[in-house]
Design a protein that fits this description.
The chain has helices spanning about 10-25, 45-55, 75-90, 105-135; strands at about 5-10, 30-35, 60-65, 95-100. It is α/β, with parallel strands linked by helices and about 140 residues long. It has one domain: Lumazine/riboflavin synthase (Rossmann fold), CATH 3.40.50.960. Helix content is about 50%, strand content about 20%.
Length: about 140
Amino acid sequence: MAHFLVLSVAGALEDSLTQESLSVISLYGHTFDKITIPSLQHLPYALNKFSEDNDYEAAICISVISKSPVHDHDALYSATVAAIYDYIQYFGRPVGFALIKKKLSKVHLMDYVKKITKDTCEMILMDRTFYSLEERGYSDRFQRN
């Protein structure tokens, strides 16, 4: 059983998408801490801060990016994705992120979030299988020349 960090930007749509994600995580038998953050700008900081202080095996990040005259959403989206990849490199943990820029129907959004969450749960199983094989001495077969 893995322990997930689930970060969701505050919003009604994000709340329902997060509930879908939490149900998938529970279906796989994993546990989670759900944290709501005020905006997408806070996501990279929250991801790093909560991961340093806790022992999460994976994270899920959910946000629907809507048009606003205040922010350059393409730049914010790009910076957030870059920060998530930096996190993956530094911590070596899987992160499923649903940073959705365009409007889709709620059903399509739910399906997308479920898929992202399932894929992240599968990555945990893959990691555990690899480390189990490595502990049993099979790691030589996986090394590239």
